[in-house]
Amino acid sequence: MSDEEHHFESKADAGASKTYPQQAGTIRKNGYIVIKNRPCKVPHVTRTDYQLIDISEDGFIKDGFAEGKDLVVTVMSSMGEQICALKDIGPK
């Protein structure tokens, strides 16, 4: 036998990855995702629908409301609240 030591450096990982692509709709709450090579925890997101009955001075939905449309606003909240959808459910 030989007295010399053999050192192997492995620079290949056989194509294995620590992450994999996933559809946004299949991500579970309190799971982890990677965005721009940084791990992020998925927050608990709630969706609530409200029927619009009045608009304050800073509202941006005034046109449809002034026409007498019956509107439903969808609000998503996680780390803050944001209107994400507006639906016309018919005339008043």
Automatic annotation (TrEMBL):
Organism, as annotated: Hevea brasiliensis (Para rubber tree)
Record InterPro entries: IF5A-like (IPR001884), IF5A-like_N (IPR048670), IF5A_C (IPR020189), NA-bd_OB-fold (IPR012340), Rib_uL2_dom2 (IPR014722), Translation_prot_SH3-like_sf (IPR008991)
SMART domains noted in UniProt: eIF-5a
Protein name from the UniProt record: Translation initiation factor 5A C-terminal domain-containing protein
GO-annotated biological processes: positive regulation of translational elongation; positive regulation of translational termination
Basic and acidic residues composition-biased segments: 1-12
Pfam families: IF5A-like_N
Region (Disordered): 1-23
GO MF, any single term: RNA binding
Span of domain Translation initiation factor 5A C-terminal: 44-87
Superkingdom, natural source: Eukaryota
